[in-house]
Specification:
By secondary structure, this protein is of the alpha+beta class. The protein is built from 28 helices and 22 strands. Strand 8 and strand 9 form a beta hairpin. Helix 16 packs parallel to helix 22. It is globular. This is Circularly permuted type 2 ATP-grasp protein. InterPro entries: ATP-dep_Glu-Cys_Ligase-2, CP_ATPgrasp_2, DUF403.
Length: about 850
């Protein structure tokens, strides 16, 4: 059968293009990115939609589904302010397109603005000439909580206050791009912009290539090199300082750390000592040369700034004074975001550069000046009123973020006017501007939505600002672009800068001769080791609990408790789950088998239930996402989701099916760790956690089902629980017998489920970890592992007693404590390593 002729294909494409775009209508009186002021489509947008129409309706729908699936599988997420649950990343299927000519203006304007703010910060924390010369009122600066007095006179490393700057832009009614906000504290969105690009460029690979979209990799390469230049030694250690897993943008921070090769640290991971900042690692303290902070400045040092901060590093500012660490952006840079400064930026730019601002600021009047205050009050009906300072509590209580005075009640407007008269310095008035809209795909058609574009400028290796060719675009579901914050209904979009010529294919890969080969990634931070250790323990604990539940479900289905011996075994299984915290211990005998199984699986109020352990695994994994592969993270999330989705009363066969599926997920996690993780310290701590937990659990199961009081049914259950039935049956023709079972469960070094196997692996792993003192003496973890290994290796099955098994269990728990005490360094007095072996 012949395919469509070129003419017919072209006609079909033209029809799809018309169907796609003909109904699109910009909002009255609002500029639009697709439809120009002359009412005609802009050329680069028309080119995009023409190529999109060429794919066909089914293909477009499939690609849209691919975008959504990739985001889910990669676990791209965020949190809205005040929330504790991650949301899936809301990526628009349509990019924001900007022509090469328009981008040149934006690029020049953002670069200029970054240079102005660099000069502004140097002046505010230096000579203060802008204030003394009358370009800036002192109160517009000192009224801001972000102006930090301890930083006055403190010059940052290399004299650079800003390593990265961002401007939030919108196109005004006159077609010109306007600056809505400046971001100099700790600009967010870079990692999400990169994720947006990866997803859109994969979904529309041919369109992306044919439109010559400018690449992002060179910008990140320059940014990384620029941060490295702030250090005073080659191959510096660069840390990304995160507020932690509860940050709204923690996913982005972990992603950037992994992408750029930085060490992700929290405040507790850093210690200031001897005029330097160090990272706490399993091998002791290791110098941190550059810190890219993602916490607000006033949290950075509880000794000199906000005393209650749990995010900062005591003594950090004194280290900065000595010039021994570079912090990007400089502590105190957040004052540049103060809305009170916006009305003075044009004059400051003239004073600093002798130039007019290429990108004007949205008209702003600070009400701390009499003339400006009266101007705002006289036109209050037509003004947007916002807090002048981020720390202004009274303005925040009255306004929240920003309000249009003409859109509130007469009573609210009167209260606002009174507040401005009484404390005018706390408020700014701003011109209300209807910003442009961009096409968004909604219910299989294009609709206009307002947006804000964040554009980034970073200092490159040459010491000059480089602008990222694209940005972070937020699209509102409401027709009010001033309120575009990441929350319910807001989407993001990739930003494509369409070039006239093919762009160079670049990556983050440096020249081969510029990189010294290494097989170890550096030192593993203690916090990361701690989390990997507990991730291993939680995963193993979840597996043991699921095996107990599965064993109970099978017995319930097969009516194994009809006989006295079977009933006793079933009761022991229930007791173990009660002792492990899977169900309330006091009600273990009152629940029906179905009720008991559902409680052990889904009771979120019990720390040892299957769903609670899956949640704990995901929570722990979230703290070290930069160290886990996307596949590993996805399976951990899937495991938690399986048990979350199953939280309804299930019957015994359904419970059995769910446990089998969950155990397959656990096996996949273990398999990925074995096959994909490098054999360095991070993998070893994950393994140590798993082996310790498996050893302790197996000892407990052996004491319950394998000692003197055990019957044949108990031994059979024990082999089930340690997944050794097939091995036992193939080795012994006779049925279960006490000594062979005990040997296989406790002493057999060839059985990967035996206690002896776990101890042997533990001794191997611990022997390769760093030591702090090279004095020939064994450290506590090594000594305990060797002692237990020797006891098990020399023991025979006929001499095993419950007391011996209990002693092994307790020594394993002591080994866990010794590992934590030695490697998960705590406090400011963490010791240094004298010898390092097996670094992370």
């Amino acid at each position: 059968m012949l395919g469509p002729t070129p003419g017919r294909a072209s006609n079909a494409k033209a029809r799809r293009l018309v169907e796609m775009t003909a109904a699109y209508r910009p909002l009255d009186g609002v500029p639009d990115e697709f439809i120009g002021a002359d009412g005609r489509p802009r050329g680069h947008w028309l080119e995009f939609f023409d190529k999109l129409a060429g794919l066909g309706s089914d293909d477009i729908a499939r690609r849209f589904e691919t975008i959504e699936r990739n985001i889910r599988e990669q676990g791209v997420s965020y949190r809205a302010y005040g929330e504790t649950v991650d949301r899936a990343w809301p990526l628009s299927h349509m990019p924001l397109l900007i022509s090469e000519q328009e981008w040149a203006v934006i690029e020049a304007g953002v670069t200029q603005r970054a240079e102005v703010f660099e000069g502004l910060l140097a002046d505010l924390y230096g000579g203060g000439e802008l204030i003394s010369e009358g370009y800036l009122p002192a109160a517009a600066v000192t009224g801001s909580a972000d102006f930090l007095h301890p930083m006055i006179g403190v010059k940052p490393r290399c004299g650079r206050y800003l390593s990265i700057y961002a401007a939030d832009l919108g196109r005004g009614p006159d077609g010109q791009w306007w600056v809505l906000n400046d971001r100099a504290q700790a600009p967010s969105g870079l990692g999400y912009a990169l994720e947006n690009r990866l997803n859109l460029s994969r979904a529309f690979q041919s369109i992306y290539r044919e439109m010559n979209v400018r690449r992002l990799a060179p910008f990140f390469q320059d940014f990384r090199a620029g941060l490295a230049n702030l250090a005073n030694r080659s191959e510096p250690r660069i840390c990304l300082h995160t507020p932690g897993p509860y940050s709204e943008t923690y996913y982005e921070q972990a992603y950037l750390a992994r992408y750029l090769g930085f060490v992700l640290v929290e405040g507790a991971d850093l210690v200031a000592r001897d005029g330097l900042v160090h990272v706490r690692t399993i091998a002791g303290l290791k110098r941190a040369d550059v810190i890219w902070r993602r916490i607000d400045s006033d949290f950075a040092d509880p000794l000199e700034l906000k005393s209650g901060s749990q995010l900062g590093v005591p003594g950090l500012i004194d280290t900065i004074r000595q010039g021994n660490v570079a912090v990007a952006n400089a502590i105190g840079a957040g004052v540049a975001e103060t809305p009170a400064l916006l009305g003075f930026m044009a004059n400051i730019a003239g004073r600093m550069l002798g130039e007019k601002l290429i990108l004007p600021t949205i008209a702003t009047w600070w009400c701390g000046q009499e003339a400006e205050r009266e101007y705002v009050l006289a036109r209050l009906q037509d003004m947007a009123i916002a807090p002048a300072f981020s720390g202004s509590a009274s303005a925040r209580r009255l306004l929240g973020r920003s309000v249009v005075a003409g859109e509130v009640s007469d009573k609210q407007r009167a209260a606002l006017a009174t507040a401005i008269r009484e404390r005018g310095a706390d408020f700014v008035g701003q011109e209300v501007v209807r910003l442009s809209t961009t096409p968004v795909w909604v219910d299989n058609k294009l609709e206009p939505r307002p947006f804000v574009l964040r554009v980034y400028a970073a200092v490159g290796p040459d010491g000059k600002f480089q602008v990222m060719p694209g940005g972070f675009c937020r699209i509102s579901d409401r027709m009010d672009s001033r309120a575009v914050a990441m929350g319910q209904g807001v989407q993001t979009a990739d930003v494509w800068i369409a070039a006239s010529r093919p762009v160079e294919q670049t990556t983050l890969l440096p020249r081969s001769d510029a990189v010294s080969i290494r097989r170890i990634m550096g030192n593993l931070p203690s916090r990361a080791a701690d989390n990997l250790f507990w991730l291993g323990r939680y995963i193993e604990r979840a597996e043991a609990t699921l095996r107990l539940i599965r064993c109970l479900a099978r017995r319930a289905i097969e009516n194994e408790d009809m006989y006295q011996e079977g009933a006793a075994t079933t009761q022991r299984l229930r007791k173990v789950l009660g002792d492990w915290g899977a169900v309330p211990a006091k009600t273990t005998t009152a629940l029906t088998p179905q009720m008991f199984l559902n409680a052990a699986m889904f009771n979120v109020d019990e720390f040892g239930s299957a769903v609670s352990l899956a949640r704990a695994s995901q929570r722990t994994a979230a703290a070290i996402r930069e160290r886990l592969s996307p596949d590993t993270w996805r399976i951990i999330v899937d495991l938690s989701q399986k048990l979350e989705d199953g939280r309804v009363p299930l019957d015994e066969p359904e419970i059995l099916e769910l446990t089998d599926s969950a155990l397959q997920a656990v096996a996949s996690i273990s398999g990925l760790a074995q096959e994909n993780m490098n054999r360095v310290a991070g993998w070893r701590f994950l393994e140590i956690g798993r082996r310790l937990e498996r050893g302790v659990n197996t000892c407990r199961l052996a004491r319950t089902f394998g000692m003197e009081q055990a019957r044949a049914a108990d031994f059979d259950v024990l082999l089930d629980l340690i997944d050794s039935q097939i091995t036992y049956r193939s080795r012994y023709i006779v049925g279960v017998a006490p000594y062979p079972v005990r040997d296989m469960v406790l002493l057999d070094p060839y059985n990967p489920r035996s206690v002896a196997f776990q101890i042997e692996r533990l001794a191997e792993h611990i022997a390769t970890l760093p030591v702090l003192k090279f004095d020939g003496m064994l450290e506590a973890p090594n000594r305990i592992a060797i002692e237990v290994h020797a006891d098990l290796k020399t023991k025979v099955a006929s001499c095993i007693t419950a007391e011996f098994v209990l002693s092994v269990e307790r020594r394993l728990m002591g080994l866990a404590d010794a590992v934590a005490t030695r490697y998960f360094l705590q406090g400011a007095n963490a010791a240094r390593a004298e010898k390092q072996v097996g670094l992370a």
